[in-house]
Design brief:
By secondary structure, the protein is an all-alpha fold. Helix 1 runs parallel beside helix 3.
Length: about 70
């Protein structure tokens, strides 16, 4: 399993890529329900960051499938 620092770096890189190359997707990040936990003492450990990274990758994957099915940009 990846360490927390690695996950944060990968999330940072992926969100930067989305901001620069796919601004239409970047706008959806504020609407992502996993972005902000809804409880008073959220668990912000490796599993939370890993789930968030997976959700970002799925967002990009769905975008590619819907807009350019032959694209392998990730």
């Amino acid at each position: 399993m990846k360490q927390l620092r690695e996950l944060k770096q990968e999330i940072n890189s992926l969100t930067l890529k989305m901001k620069q190359e796919y601004p239409e997707l970047y706008a959806y990040l504020d609407e992502n329900p996993i972005t902000l936990p809804n409880n008073q003492n959220p668990d912000l450990g490796v599993s939370t960051y890993s789930e968030y990274l997976d959700s970002l990758k799925q967002l990009l994957k769905r975008h590619f499938e819907n807009h350019d099915p032959h694209s392998e940009r990730m």
